Amino acid sequence: MSHAHVPESPYPASPPEGFRHDAVFYAGTRGFLPGVMPFVSAALERDEPVLVALIPAREHALRSELGRASSRIEFVDMQSAGENPARIIPIWRDFVTRHAPTGKTLNGVGEPIWATRTAPEIAECQRHESLLNLAFADAGAFALICPYDEQGLPVGILEGARESHPHVVEGGKRCASAAYLGTDGIEAADSSPLSPPPAVHHARAYGAADLTGIRRTIESWAGAQGLEPSRASDLALAVHEAATNSIRHGGGRGLLRWWGEHDAVVCQTADAGILRDPLAGRALPRPGAAGGRGLWLVNHCCDLVQIRSGTTGTTVRVRQGLQRTT
């Protein structure tokens, strides 16, 4: 490990009794390592499992600081694996499942939001941060810190972090967040409406007999917009799965809308069903389960998935970038 000075850790010396979820505020590139090193170093000294999910530049900085000790850490490229924020919880689920039998405290560093994230991505990241508190409520001793660059991110994002994390760390001090919303943060995120489709877009009502045609239509249209064939096929599959959910759980019919943007193609299904599980699509159903694979497939086929469900029905919006960003 590097011989650079590691600041005193603001974290409790005793292991967490359950899931501990902290937002760590740091100031720019120079503030990143002092913000995360005390947490990582302490976990390594206790010989506990550690998974770090960061964008490549942050990962490189941490690896360089740790030196040989970095080989004891599991690293995940957040920019790639977490491009769609709905795929982040499965990463942590896998980590917890693999290491829980050791009986040791599990430790994670996950930075889901960075400066070049788009507004829709940020909205889903904020929803994800609230969902973590529900997803790992019974996970046992699991400490997760989420770094936030207070120099590079808007104030509204930092305020959102205070709402989704029970504790915050800033200036080397850890304290309870007075703004923490608990699981009410999930309801707040789900009640936030999606931006309306553009004035010019395609629309088509559908029922059970239309599913095959919808899939062909979207795949052909997406290809004509410049989406590469394999990604056009993935998009069409995602729309097919979302529409199938409408048939099974949304009253047997729905409305499909689709349109192009300067850097992406977007499709949206809407129906009268109500999605009651906010974590739907974030866990692969067990073998033999009657359902639940549809939204899992949707999340793994597209760059971004946005789901809003309330008393008036459920909307699923999927986006595929015309050029890969990772």
Describe this structure in words.
The chain has 326 residues and is α/β, with parallel strands linked by helices. It has two domains: 19-190, Rossmann fold; 202-321, Histidine kinase-like ATPase, C-terminal domain (Heat Shock Protein 90), CATH 3.30.565. It has helices at residues 28-45, 56-66, 78-81, 88-99, 119-135, 155-164, 184-190, 211-224, 229-249, 293-301; strands at residues 19-26, 50-54, 74-77, 106-110, 142-149, 167-170, 173-176, 202-206, 254-260, 264-271, 304-310, 313-321. Strands 3-2-4-5-1-6-7 form a seven-stranded mixed sheet, sandwiched between helices. A five-stranded antiparallel sheet has the order 8-9-10-12-11, with helices on both faces. Strand 9 and strand 10 form a beta hairpin.
Strand order of the largest sheet: 3-2-4-5-1-6-7
CATH second-level architecture of the largest domain:
3-Layer(aba) Sandwich
Q: How many discrete structural domains?
A: 2
Largest sheet: 7 strands, mixed
Helix content: 25-40%
* Proportion of strand residues: 15-25%
CA-atom Rg in angstroms: 21 Å
Class from helix and strand fractions:
alpha/beta
As residue ranges, the low-confidence spans are none
The CATH superfamily of the largest domain is known as: P-loop containing nucleotide triphosphate hydrolases
| Number of separate helices | 10
Task: Looking at this protein, list some descriptive labels.
326 residues, Rossmann fold, Heat Shock Protein 90, 2 domains, 7-stranded mixed sheet, 5-stranded antiparallel sheet, elongated
